[in-house]
Amino acid sequence: MQSAYVGHDSGHYQVMTSRGYNKLAQILSGNCLTGISIAWWKWTHNAHHIACNSLDHDPDLQHIPVFAVSSHFFTSLTSSFYGRTLNFDPLARFLVSYQHWTYYPVMIVARVNLFVQTFLLLFSNRSVPDRGFNIMGILVFWTWFPLLVSCLPNWPERIMFVLASFAVTSIQHVQFTLNHFSANVYVGLPTGNDWFEKQTSGTIDISCPSMMDWFFGGLQFQLEHHLFPRLPRCHLRKVSPLVRELCKKHKLPYRSLSFWEANKSTIRTLRTAALQARDLTNPAPKNLLWEAFNTHG
């Protein structure tokens, strides 16, 4: 998790004094230590910052067929980022109908998807900056990590170790989604005059004491990070009161929830979309148990 935070910070060119040294930090902390290509991360993350929480432009919200944070996805939106239609087919309807139950289990194995996305990009026909260095970096990861796992005495322990490592990093995946899944969404690109407003409406901060800043890697100040992406994480807490006052002055949302409340808000958003998807697949009258559960929670 900490390596990924360093990869994120160096990806924003916050860590080192030069672009070259930052690139070195990116490859080491991202590719070599986590197995996730910094080239893939930049490709998606830049789009996320430009069009935060745009359903058709922000790849961080485009998780069909597994998750849908809005009923807009039920119309099979066309992803401007991926250049394809996000088909809301029967499989997607089924999976989304239970997404508030599958959210945490999926987060546990979400790292596998990042590995797959890394390989798909690096070995595609797309133009990839520093492709050679990125491939070398992931080769380093896929050398040391299997060797580490092979030191365990038997296959059951090896499988348990890998699953445990995925479960630990799932905390980070949960955090990434808490910042945006239950925030406001829209379709299209932000205009030149509403970019600031889109950032405030599309992000949620996680409130925590300063001693926990290391745990959240600075991303608990998500709005501050989106407004000042080049600002090192050690300064985010300092500018937070200024951003709060600015939002208050211009009557813009500034949402800061506890980790627990942010989880509840995310599950609530997923559940709302899940029940809407369930209505699409089963418009027949519900039984009494269904009505009791979904009316009264």
Automatic annotation (TrEMBL):
Record-linked Pfam families: FA_desaturase (PF00487)
Highest taxon listed in the record's lineage: Eukaryota
Keywords: Lipid metabolism, Membrane, Oxidoreductase, Transmembrane, Transmembrane helix
Keyword field contains Nucleotidyltransferase: no
Subcellular location: Membrane
UniProt key word Transmembrane helix: yes
Single GO cellular component term: membrane
InterPro entries: FA_desaturase_dom (IPR005804), Fatty_acid_desaturase (IPR012171)
GO biological process, one term: lipid metabolic process
Principal cellular location given in the protein's record: membrane
Residues that span the membrane, as ranges: 103-123, 135-155
Residues covered by the Fatty acid desaturase domain: 4-257
GO molecular function terms listed in the Swiss-Prot or TrEMBL record: oxidoreductase activity, acting on paired donors, with oxidation of a pair of donors resulting in the reduction of molecular oxygen to two molecules of water
Protein family according to the UniProt entry: Belongs to the fatty acid desaturase type 1 family.
Name assigned to this protein: Fatty acid desaturase domain-containing protein
